[in-house]
Design goal:
This protein is of the alpha/beta class. Helices cover about 40% and strands about 15% of the residues.
Length: about 300
């Protein structure tokens, strides 16, 4: 069978025609920093801390962030996320809960997270004993209390994505919004090797499952009640759970769209990429068997 690269824009996500790539107008994509000017930053940060320290009762939005050995950036990242949510003109911090899903941490990540909970009561901590990204993400999704769930990364915490994704979920009726690093209007500043690896994985997913989108791993937002059945149908975990989740959402007929991302990481990957390759290949075979052969979802 001839092979090809998935299209970088204008492609269908999934195989049932239920989803598509939608690139928003230029005004919807922000590539410039939203950090406040230095002069008034101390005053604003004091206000943000006061608002973020209020307890959350009935969150409408749950942000799930898997963390593994993140003691170096955890405190600064969470504090900055709370501040950006407070400052956003399009979001209401009182609607949010933030879930840190720790998986097999061997450093001070859990200790620091518990200290942060004392400062930010809208923060919750989940723990598992093994370093398993997919399991941590799934656990966070299943324990989320919000109507909408945003899956983020601790080295990104992209509030601009929250704003654009929630608009598409709430106002345009999409079931899932995927932040794609590979759309033509995305701004991906990761090292060349990592960008190449993303392209290879997407091509392999097309080959294994028929996936026609541009990205599956990373930021995504979705309607929790509608998508829980797709979460529970997933058969792989670790590195490929997020990919299977997106693929199943499209194949099950949910409305899925992609939007461009700005990606500037704060640190190198916490797990060596080359060590993940054998596991990813095994999980690719599993997905191909379940979806192509057994016709699952």
């Amino acid at each position: 069978m001839a092979t090809r690269n998935p299209r970088k824009s204008g492609s269908t996500v999934g195989t049932k025609g239920a989803s598509h790539v939608e690139e928003p107008p230029a005004s919807a994509v922000t590539l410039e920093s939203k950090s406040p000017v230095v002069d008034d930053a101390p005053v604003k940060r004091t206000q943000a801390k006061s608002a973020a320290s209020l307890p959350v009762e009935n969150p409408q939005i749950s942000v799930v962030i898997p963390v593994y050995n993140e003691e170096g950036i955890l405190s600064a990242s969470v504090s900055d996320l709370m501040y950006k949510l407070e400052q956003s003109p399009k979001l209401d911090l009182s609607e949010f809960e933030i879930i840190l899903s720790a998986n097999g941490c061997k450093d001070r990540t859990v200790e620091i997270a518990n200290e942060l909970i004392e400062r930010f009561p809208r923060l919750r901590l989940l723990q598992s004993d093994e370093p398993n990204y997919g399991k941590a993400l799934r656990q966070g999704i299943e324990s989320a209390k919000g109507d909408f769930v945003i899956c983020d990364e601790i080295d990104l915490c992209d509030v601009d994505f929250y704003e654009r994704a929630l608009y598409r979920l709430r106002e345009e009726g999409y079931d899932m919004v995927v932040g794609s690093k590979r759309l033509e209007r995305s701004f991906d500043k990761r090292p060349p090797f990592r960008r190449f690896a993303s392209s290879v994985v997407t091509w392999m997913l097309w080959l294994a499952t028929g996936f026609e989108g541009t990205d599956t791993h990373g930021l995504k937002a979705f309607n929790r009640k509608r998508l829980l059945e797709a979460v529970r149908a997933c058969v792989v975990d670790r590195d490929m759970f997020a990919s299977e989740f997106v693929i199943r959402a499209g194949r099950m007929g949910f409305r899925v769209t992609e939007i461009p991302l700005e990606v500037i990481e704060k640190r190198a990957p916490s797990i060596n990429l080359t060590k993940r390759v054998p596991r990813v290949l095994r999980q690719m075979v599993t997905l191909a068997w379940v979806i192509r052969v057994k016709k699952g979802a």
